[in-house]
Amino acid sequence: MEAYVAIGNDSLLALNQLISEKKYSSVFILVDSNTRQFCLPLVQRQADLLISAPVIEIPAGEGGKGLANLEKIITVLLKKNADRQSLLVNVGGGMVCDIGGFSASVFKRGINFIHIPTTLLAMVDAAIGGKTGINYLEKKNVIGTYAEPDAVFVYPHFLNTLSARELKSGYAEIFKHILLSDSKWFHSLVGNPLNGFGESDLFDLIRHSVHFKKSITTEDFRENGLRKILNFGHTLGHALESHSMRGVRPLRHGEAIAAGMTGELFLSHKLAGFPQEDMYAAIVFLRNLFNHIQLKFVPDDLFPYLHADKKNSNEKIAFSLLSSPGHPAGVFYPSHDQVLESINFLLLEFSSAPVQ
Ligand SMILES: NC(=O)c1ccc[n+]([C@@H]2O[C@H](COP(=O)([O-])OP(=O)(O)OC[C@H]3O[C@@H](n4cnc5c(N)ncnc54)[C@H](O)[C@@H]3O)[C@@H](O)[C@H]2O)c1
Fold first, then answer.
1. What whole-number distance in Å separates Cα of residue 289 and Cα of residue 234?
2. From ligand 1's centre to the CA of 254, what distance in Å?
């Protein structure tokens, strides 16, 4: 069943009605330490049926998306007698949506869940399309399911308390969606790189991203073909994100994807004919947006993660590339040397000192 998606600062008004109509046997809320403070009170103000629901809190940050917290969530559901008619409401960013969706999809072989994404990245990406997952042994999302929530409520008002760094992280996925879907919009964005997304209407960007991702994932829910295009930037990006989790200042998801897209634009140019001029325009745009990042690693650091990527086939590393803005070109399996070249390319772009 396709998820109901409501977008707008009046979207949460429908939550109470949905909960009472569906007659769930019990309702639980999942939050992290930040979303409990900044977002849960707003949700409960608009949906009073949630005021008495037990709240499960996990620590904030990517480290929260692991087996220990899965166990914590399942234990609460079990001890409080959740059954297959129960509902789990995930109030948080991509971390909470991923582990909450996963917990709900495996508990008693699947209970109902709703996403209320609270970061830009979760609104335009993580909460849409039904992928759930947790990290294991430093590998991103290696344990996961495909499971559709009953509904997703995109309430942009939450962005008021989000840090500038987290907001920018979400812009990376919005940029990816525009690059994949709309050549005209891409050219008007990169035509004015110093402004970044400054002059764009955030609501329009959110709406476009949600509708684009939803249209792809509705057609190919289990990623047998079309959906693979959404992995653009994510082969190198996930490797960078996993590797950075070992350091003192881990990359945010969107930051890793921005650097990953830079390497994969290079591969798109080399292997799929992506125009050089557009490649550099996109890279200048990304570098300006993420001028606070400085990457420090050697290419060999990434290969263990690249070889463990779940998209690989016959031990070859898979990349979803583009032939031009708005035109995905399918999946490619570059040679080791080509992958190495793409890592060196992105390193050159992202190794200079951050702009203060
Ligand atoms: N399932 C998918 O299709 C999909 C797609 C993209 C990304 N993801 C996953 O999403 C995760 C990243 O998501 P994210 O970037 O949202 O990170 P996140 O969930 O870790 O949130 C980032 C930080 O912002 C805080 N926060 C959240 N909402 C807030 C608010 N409104 N005000 C103040 N602080 C707030 C969080 O507590 C956290 O500290 C990664 O694990 C990634 O793998 C999943």
1. 18
2. 10
Identity of the residue numbered 34 = N
Q: Is the pLDDT of residue 193 over 70?
A: no
**pLDDT surpasses 80 at 354:** no
The answer to whether 240 and 251 have CB atoms below 8 angstroms apart is yes
DSSP string, 156-220: GGGGGGS-HHHHHHHHHHHHHHHHHH-HHHHHHHHTSGGGTTTTS-HHHHHHHHHHHHHHHHHHS
pLDDT digits (tens, 9 = 90+) for 204-238: 999 999 999 999 999 999 999 999 999 999 999 99
Q: What is the pTM of this model?
A: 0.96
pLDDT confidence bin for 246, thresholds 50/70/90:
confident
The mean of the pLDDT values for the chain is 95
Going 106 to 307 to 319 to 253, the CA torsion angle's sign is: positive
Distance CA 184, CA 343 (A): 29
Ligand 1 pocket test: pick from 69, 121, 231, 238 the residue with the most ligand atoms within 8 Å of its Cβ: 121
Closest CA to 212 of 129, 112, 94, 301: 129
pLDDT band at 342 (very low <50, low <70, confident <90, very high): very high
* 6 strand-pairing partners: 153
- Other residues' Cβ atoms within 10 Å of the Cβ of residue 229: 21
C-alpha 341/C-alpha 275 separation (Å) is: 18
- Parallel, antiparallel or unpaired: strands 151-154 and 112-117: parallel
User: How far is ligand 1, taken at its centre, from the CA of residue 94, in Å?
Assistant: 4
CA 115 to CA 101: how far, in whole Å?
Answer: 8
| Residue 66, number of CB atoms within 10 A of its CB | 17
